[in-house]
Design goal:
The chain has about 190 residues and is an alpha/beta fold. The chain is built from 7 helices and 7 strands. It has 2 domains: about 110 residues, Tetrapyrrole methylase, N-terminal domain (Cobalt-precorrin-4 Transmethylase, domain 1); about 60 residues, 2-Layer Sandwich (Methyltransferase, Cobalt-precorrin-4 Transmethylase, Domain 2), CATH 3.30.950.10. Helices cover about 40% and strands about 15% of the residues. The strands form 2 sheets. The protein has a 5-stranded parallel β-sheet with strand order 3-2-4-1-5, with helices on both faces. A two-stranded parallel sheet has the order 6-7. Helix 6 links the parallel strand 6 and strand 7. Helix 3 runs parallel beside helix 4 and helix 6 packs across helix 7. Keywords: Cytoplasm, Methyltransferase, rRNA processing, S-adenosyl-L-methionine, Transferase.
Length: about 190
């Protein structure tokens, strides 16, 4: 029996019209959609009349759900992996499943689209020829400052995610550790 395909599907960031025709087709055609939050993904699916079944796939069930989805892929099912917004795996759940699928020889196909990283870079007015993506900074101040110290000498544009309620504290730590650097805050 042939294995299925794992599709890593980018979803809109804030505007449901920012989704590709290919992404919508894949979401209609797969056997199951692995969603970071099924309630959130349901809004997108309802908007476009997509009735494909969903299963939750988030940081709290990633290990066990990845094994279940890998088994289904090996049995020939096709699976779409989506996050709440943007491209899965990039500071979102999905790495475990993608890694296991690659190791098992299951085809993994990206379905590109919205990415908070490239969207922010495109309008920040900062150099984009070289940049480093850091993901989410640690929540605790001491750990956050140590992480920033690790990258303090990198001269390139630094891109990071931060929760809205921690932005001010993170900016203070950025200033304290990295000094006088140009910053752009995006939402």
């Amino acid at each position: 029996m042939a294995t299925g395909t794992l599709y890593v599907v980018a979803t809109p960031i804030g505007n449901l019209e920012d989704v590709s025709a290919r992404a919508l087709r894949i979401l209609r055609e797969v056997h199951v959609i692995a969603s970071e939050d099924t309630r959130h993904t349901r809004l997108l699916l309802q908007r476009y009349g997509i009735t494909t079944p969903q299963v939750s796939y988030h940081e709290h069930n990633e290990q066990t759900r990845a094994q279940e989805l890998l088994r289904r892929l090996q049995e020939g099912a096709s699976v779409a992996l989506v996050s709440d917004a943007g491209t899965p795996v990039l500071s979102d759940p999905g790495f475990t499943l993608v890694r296991q699928a690659v190791a098992a020889g299951v085809p993994v196909v990206p379905v590109p689209g919205a990415s908070a990283i490239t969207a922010a870079l495109s309008v920040a007015g900062l150099p984009t020829d070289r940049f480093v993506f850091l993901g989410f900074l640690p929540r605790k101040a001491g750990e956050r400052r140590r992480a920033l110290l690790d990258i303090a000498r990198i001269p390139w544009t630094l891109v990071m995610f931060e929760a809205p309620h921690r932005v001010v504290r993170a900016l203070r730590d950025l200033r304290a550790v990295l000094g006088d650097r140009q910053v752009a805050v995006m939402r």
